[in-house]
Amino acid sequence: MIKAGIIGAAGYTGGELIRILLNHPEVEIAFAVSGSQAGKKISAVHQDLLGETELQFVKEYHSEIDVLFLCAGHGAAKDFLTKNEVSEKVKVIDLSQDFRLGESINGREFVYGLPELYKLDISKAENIANPGCFATAIQLGLLPMVKHGLVAEEVHTTGITGSTGAGVSLSDTSHFSWRVNNISTYKTFDHQHLKEINHNFGKLGDAKPDILFVPYRGPFTRGIWITSYFKTDVTLEEALRIYTEFYQEHPFTHITEEELDLKQVVNTNKCFIRLEKKGSQLIVSSIIDNLLKGASGQAVQNMNLMLGFEESTGLKLKATGF
């Protein structure tokens, strides 16, 4: 049985990770660290876990584990690995943005954890930088065309995300009274996830597309909807073939010709992609759950690959539907 530790376990991604690992047949949670909630039962904070676990949050971590998940905020993961001695035998999966551009620390080299692009590298890795949620959904929508050099220089992309994407700490834009019945843009053309997208796309060919990304805050709790469009001579039939072949060995990314609804992927580790062709424009919609395929679910997917388990182990999660 694999022993896992979690740092920053009281937040949204920590809670999702606990839920998944409690039901993973090959994993035992050794500890869940939270500086703010130490001593409390996990079910007192993640209240849906009442009856699922008697574990408590702890303040200190130890290295008597096989894998360590870092669910701390951006900058905090690098700080943790700087201040704490983590055994070289412990595999590290970081859910922050601290190592997504190939950064290293204390001799640890990090592999970017997008399985649909780097599955073989992930299976050999000791440390993983888990992708951002917007970055996951955008890249999955564009990867097949970018890898084949079929994307024009400019891609127009919009994305709307649920309030959980802002984390558990309250802010002016995450209060219910502000968020409900409302929509707004932020970080237009300058979202931090563009850095990792550009970093990866730059490795795929001589020319990487210029992604003009407009993010939106949505009046719902979880999920991401991305719409990208760009000029191409590729027909819809040929595009469908390219996408289907590209993702045929990837269990969580699916191509559909039916209309999409965000509810199809919420509470799952899936990404659904739909293609449309209007004149010279290929329109690509890609949807994920920001806390699962965009964070904790993908982290467990990466862990499965790193440890030699079947990729979807513990991740047969079902959408809630209506």
CATH top-level class of the largest domain: Alpha Beta
- What's the overall average pLDDT, rounded? 92
- Which regions contain 5 or more consecutive residues with pLDDT less than 50? none
Global shape: globular
Compressed to H and E, one letter per element, the order equals EHEHEHEEEEHEHEHEHEEHEEEH
| Rounded Rg | 19 Å
CATH topology heading of the largest domain: Dihydrodipicolinate Reductase, domain 2
For the largest beta-sheet, the strand count, sense and barrel status come to: 7 strands, mixed
Structural class: alpha/beta
Largest sheet, order of strands side by side? 10-11-9-12-15-14-13
Question: Could you give me the name of the CATH homologous superfamily of the largest domain?
Answer: Dihydrodipicolinate Reductase, domain 2
Counting DSSP E segments of at least 2 residues, the number of strands comes to 15
Taken as a percent bin, the fraction of beta residues is: 15-25%
- The helix tally amounts to 9
Q: In the CATH classification, which architecture of the largest domain applies?
A: 2-Layer Sandwich
Q: Helical proportion?
A: 25-40%
How many domains, in number, for the residues? Answer: 2
Distance between the termini: 36 Å
Family: Belongs to the NAGSA dehydrogenase family. Type 1 subfamily.
Function: Catalyzes the NADPH-dependent reduction of N-acetyl-5-glutamyl phosphate to yield N-acetyl-L-glutamate 5-semialdehyde.
Pathway: Amino-acid biosynthesis; L-arginine biosynthesis; N(2)-acetyl-L-ornithine from L-glutamate: step 3/4
Keywords: Amino-acid biosynthesis, Arginine biosynthesis, Cytoplasm, NADP, Oxidoreductase
